[in-house]
Hints:
binds magnesium ion, P-loop_NTPase, nucleoside diphosphate kinase activity, five-stranded parallel beta sheet, transferase, binds adenosine-5'-diphosphate
Amino acid sequence: MRISTEDKILSNGGPGSGKGTQCEKIVAKYGYTHLSSGDLLRAEVASGSERGKQLQATMQKGELVPLDTVLEMIKEAMIAKADVSKGYLIDGYPREVKQGEEFEKKIGAPALLLYVDAKAETMVKRLMKRGETSGRADDNEETIKKRLDLYYKATEPVIAYYEKSGIVRKINSELPVDEVFAIVEKAIDELK
Length: 192
Ligand SMILES: Nc1ncnc2c1ncn2[C@@H]1O[C@H](COP(=O)(O)OP(=O)(O)O)[C@@H](O)[C@H]1O
Ligand SMILES: Nc1ncnc2c1ncn2[C@H]1C[C@H](O)[C@@H](COP(=O)(O)OP(=O)(O)O)O1
Ligand SMILES: [Mg+2]
């Protein structure tokens, strides 16, 4: 499956930076198909499948699930929406450079990477707050710390990897949600 470049936007950034929040607003305004790797994985866990049980254990530890699993899920979800999609907004993928390389090989190059950026301190605060109601097994102090460490080690290099192709737009996510979205809108509108 190859999907044209202009039909793919990536949303990346640390845990709790605000990717999901901005993606929701993008979907409401632009009608893209939102595919969050974390949501896809949590749906698999919720299904109670054997594969889901293994994923659950990995996610609870704040680690990355195997590349093949997550790429296969994204690909399947893209195919399922191919007829109706006005373009895809892929959230939380790639989380390591290797995932980016495989994505380019199997699906194609993206047009834009929204780099949703917030300070570590801000992300921890937001995740602890989210944890009060999210019911997510990974929104606890210990796992948050591991996710942050892994983010700086494995995922930040992804941003540098895409900088080379000039598609990265850094979004200051320290601002209130609507102000963040104004920056996001500008980045997307520049594509047109
Ligand atoms: N710009 C913002 N200002 C304040 N709180 C925010 C902002 N963006 C997101 N949040 C809050 O931070 C938490 C994490 O946001 P979320 O979108 O789930 O992040 P991610 O998908 O990157 O983990 C949520 O509880 C959300 O309401
Ligand atoms: N692309 C990917 N590769 C490997 N593991 C992934 C993944 N996307 C998500 N996961 C796993 C590990 C993450 O810690 C967990 C939660 O992901 P998420 O919902 O995208 O987190 P958040 O939105 O808080 O950044 O799921
Ligand atoms: Mg999210």
